Amino acid sequence: MSQPFKDPFNIVYFIGFILVLLIPTLPATLSWLKVSGLI
Fold it and tell me: 4: which DSSP letter?
């Protein structure tokens, strides 16, 4: 418990945060791909 937090924990937390932010953009990305395909 006396050890400071390691970098991997920080990286995992950061990646998780990014994934949570990207989840709402998935439908928008798919919509843009469909629109690009129709154009």
Answer: P
| 3-state helix, strand and coil shares in percent for the chain, rounded to the nearest 5 | 75, 0, 25
Q: Calculate ∠ Cα 17-3-13, nearest 5°.
A: 5
- Residue 11 has, within 13 A of its CA and on its CB side, a CA count of 3
**Which amino acid is present at 31?**
S
Tokens of 27: 């439908």
Residues of the chain with confidence (pLDDT) below 70: 1-8, 39
How far apart are the C-alpha atoms of 39 and 2, rounded to whole Å? 59
